[in-house]
Amino acid sequence: MEKFVQLVVDGLSTGSVYAALALAIVLVHSATGLINFAQGGLAVLAAYVAWVLTNQGLPVGLAIVAAILVSFVLGAVVERYLIRRFERGDPDTAVVVTIGLLTLVTGVAGWIWGYNNQQFPSLFPLDTVSLLGVSVSIRSLGTTAVIVVAMVLLQVLFVRTKIGLALRAVAINPQSAAFSGLPVGRLLMVGWGLAAALGAVAGTLVAPQLTLTPGMLDNALVYALAAVILGGLTSPVGVVVAAWIIGVLENLAAVYVGFIGFDLKVAVPFILIFVVLLVRPQGLFGRKTVVRV
């Protein structure tokens, strides 16, 4: 029983990292209607900014806040001067642009800071506490708590605030939103800025666990996209729950399912995707899209 609880808790912690990136992807999609594959690269860049600031003597908490602010500005600038040129065209072209941006940002980070593993200070203590007879790290609990707070704030943003409703209106129909008097350009910049800031949270949370490298979030981005598909592109709560399910199930499958083991546990989210898409194509918590013809 203790081993099972340990695997579940570790899976929730790992799933929280996937959830942070998945939330950022949902945020961009809710604001622009695009899938942003560059989210992992922007998150890594933010982690490097925080790392540089900590090396200059800034406390880790303040360094992370500064990196979040820098990421917000960077995300807004990327949308204004790069993505906007493709948003009105073929959506597939814009997706390819975000993939190219991911490659560019990762390469720039490697060119500036190198590809050696760097130690990033943890925001939370490395001590452990006893939970149901299992030792759980405070860092894992802190990471999960941060993601829960981000999920709640994002849900409130899109459902309860004027700016969130405006972002959704722009994503659904920018022309109608413009005719209604909404500042479409500014809202798109805000959406990308918020997503980049949320990605910065993910990057700074995972860097202490994986060590800081330009490609540290490549695998996590794949899991985050799986969580987005499972949870539904329209549901912040759904993608977080899906990310936790993926994190827990891959841990349990690696230990309790002999033919999977640790080598094949990466297949777990893709099996889940296959099953969910057959039964519920819009995701576990997503909404069906009705198109009038």
TrEMBL record:
<keyword id="KW-0813">Transport</keyword>
<dbReference type="GO" id="GO:0006865">
    <property type="term" value="P:amino acid transport"/>
</dbReference>
<dbReference type="GO" id="GO:0022857">
    <property type="term" value="F:transmembrane transporter activity"/>
</dbReference>
<feature type="transmembrane region" description="Helical">
    <location>
        <begin position="60"/>
        <end position="82"/>
    </location>
</feature>
<keyword id="KW-0812">Transmembrane</keyword>
<dbReference type="InterPro" id="IPR001851">
    <property type="entry name" value="ABC_transp_permease"/>
</dbReference>
<protein>
    <submittedName>
        <fullName>Amino acid/amide ABC transporter membrane protein 1, HAAT family</fullName>
    </submittedName>
</protein>
<feature type="transmembrane region" description="Helical">
    <location>
        <begin position="253"/>
        <end position="279"/>
    </location>
</feature>
<feature type="transmembrane region" description="Helical">
    <location>
        <begin position="94"/>
        <end position="116"/>
    </location>
</feature>
<dbReference type="Pfam" id="PF02653">
    <property type="entry name" value="BPD_transp_2"/>
</dbReference>
<dbReference type="GO" id="GO:0005886">
    <property type="term" value="C:plasma membrane"/>
</dbReference>
<keyword id="KW-0472">Membrane</keyword>
<keyword id="KW-0029">Amino-acid transport</keyword>
<keyword id="KW-1003">Cell membrane</keyword>
<keyword id="KW-1133">Transmembrane helix</keyword>
<comment type="similarity">
    <text>Belongs to the binding-protein-dependent transport system permease family. LivHM subfamily.</text>
</comment>
<feature type="transmembrane region" description="Helical">
    <location>
        <begin position="220"/>
        <end position="247"/>
    </location>
</feature>
<feature type="transmembrane region" description="Helical">
    <location>
        <begin position="6"/>
        <end position="27"/>
    </location>
</feature>
<dbReference type="InterPro" id="IPR052157">
    <property type="entry name" value="BCAA_transport_permease"/>
</dbReference>
<feature type="transmembrane region" description="Helical">
    <location>
        <begin position="190"/>
        <end position="208"/>
    </location>
</feature>
<feature type="transmembrane region" description="Helical">
    <location>
        <begin position="34"/>
        <end position="54"/>
    </location>
</feature>
<feature type="transmembrane region" description="Helical">
    <location>
        <begin position="136"/>
        <end position="158"/>
    </location>
</feature>
